[in-house]
Amino acid sequence: MARDSLYFHRDFRRLWVSDTTSQFGTFVGQTVLPILAATTLAATPFEMGLLTAAETAAFLLIGLPAGVWVDRMRRRKLMLRADITRAALLFTVPIAWWAGWLTLTQLIVAGLLIGVCTVFFDIAYQSYLPSLISRERLVEGNSKLQATQSVAQVAGPGIGGLLAQLAGAANAALVTGVGFVTSALFLWRIKTVEPEPIPHENPRLWPQIAEGLRFVFGNKNLRAIVGATATANFAGGAFTAVQVLFLIHDVGLPPAAVGIMLTASGAGGVLAALASAPLTRRIGQARAIWLIPLVTWPAALLVPFAEPGWRVGFAVLGPLTYSFGGIVYNIAQVSYRQAICPDRLLGRMNASVRFVVWGTIPLGGLTGGLLGEWLGLRGTIWAACLLMSVAALWVVCSPLRHLRDIPMHQETRPAHQVSSS
Fold first, then answer.
1. Is 237 a member of any domain?
2. CB atoms within 10 A of CB 30
């Protein structure tokens, strides 16, 4: 293994472990809470849509000003506070269950507040990485981080489904909180000195928000990336709102089998994270942003054909292929955004992008819940998967088709920002 690999970067390893434990907690929780709502609290499709929407509504509510605040603060400290707060909120779920007080309202409120913390953590996280490693290593860094996220995405639902079956979904929620506590401990151990935030010429909030929006939407390639991701996420929100109900009621699976199905379908993410770096080197980093989604995202249309019996495999094969393409795309487009953006704008750039692309998820969740009541579960799955399959047209029709690799923004970096061991 080459000595210049990020495997030998001590603080990157700490960030990597922090992210891994956080991701495992997240994906266990994303399986446990919907199962808890669907089985124990007897949630309707619309109520499941509300729960899905609550988990990401914060990106719409505070996404843009959060980017300004992230650019004004030290990002690692902000991530630490977000982890601890998310853990405390999640611990209230089993406590309320033990006391006999747990309601769907509490799950929705907890999901909303956890989402607020996630907004700050995610914006700070993507803005922090370029200050920890050089920009030339962003694809490697994002690939490694995405690999562990994909492993968590594969293993987490299976663990969550099994724990929900054996110990009850409320008790299984403890795992999520423990994941966030462990994440905070490894973030706390990072030694690299983070540079002071650069003061903005105009201290007012809205001019700074506007600068971030202009940077994103003034760039044709970033506009296309935002359009593709927002469309896919809207469809994914609608899909997620009814997926568990679809697998339980229409396909006839028990909770443990639902977790296994979600685990199997997520295997594409692991393969993608492992293959992303060599694949993007072969076809070009910019080209991966449009070519990979074009050939993989239409596989989502296999899911509505799932039935009890051998056709249950369609519910695995479709998401597996879609996930493979989505992860390669995500690594490529995040690396592209980080590479072309100046340090002082990273928080606002990421916030502007996430305001749109994550803000569509709660809208999709609400839409999925309403469509589930109107069209039924299978009809909603059809509509969501059709939209997922055509989302790639945004980037296919963009100027990215004429680029092979990612251009680098050149910016002088203080020597103390990078630890080489």
1. yes
2. 20
Decide if 385 contacts 242 (C-beta within 8 A).
no
For residues 27 and 175, give the distance between their C-alpha atoms in angstroms, rounded to a whole number.
10
pLDDT in tens, 270-307: 777 778 778 888 888 888 999 999 999 999 999 999 88
Provide the total of helices (H) and of strands (E) in the chain, helices listed first: 17, 0
pLDDT of 201 > 70? The answer is no
* DSSP annotation string for 76-138: HHHHHHHHHHHHHHHHHHHHHHHHT---HHHHHHHHHHHHHHHHHHHHHHHHHHHHHS-GGGH
CATH code: domain of residue 242: 1.20.1250.20
Cβ-in-10-Å burial (0-12, 13-18, 19+) of 333 comes to: buried
Given a contact cutoff of 8 angstroms between Cβ atoms, the answer to whether 68 and 209 are in contact is yes
Alpha carbons within 13 A on the beta-carbon side of 135: 18
- Token couple for 337: 């955004």
Instruction: Count the domains in the chain.
Output: 1
- Please indicate, yes or no, if residue 259 is contained in any of the structural domains: yes
- 350 CB-near residues (< 8 Å, 6+ apart): 67, 70, 122, 123, 126, 127, 337
In a domain, 56, yes or no: yes
Burial class from Cβ neighbours inside 10 Å (0-12, 13-18, 19+) for residue 401 reads middle
At residue 230, the pLDDT reads 95
Cα separation values, 401 from 43, 290, 312, 327, Å: 45, 7, 36, 19
Q: What is the mean pLDDT of residues 20-42?
A: 78
- For residue 154, what pLDDT is reported? 65
pLDDT single digits (tens) 321-349: 998 898 889 888 888 887 888 877 877 88
This prediction has a pTM of 0.69
Q: Which DSSP letter does residue 37 get?
A: I
Least confident of 94-98, 194-198, 249-253: 194-198
CA–CA gap between residue 351 and residue 210 (Å, rounded):
11
Looking at residue 87, what is its pLDDT? Answer: 92
Say if 419 falls within a structural domain.
no
By residue range, what is the domain housing residue 58? 14-192+205-405
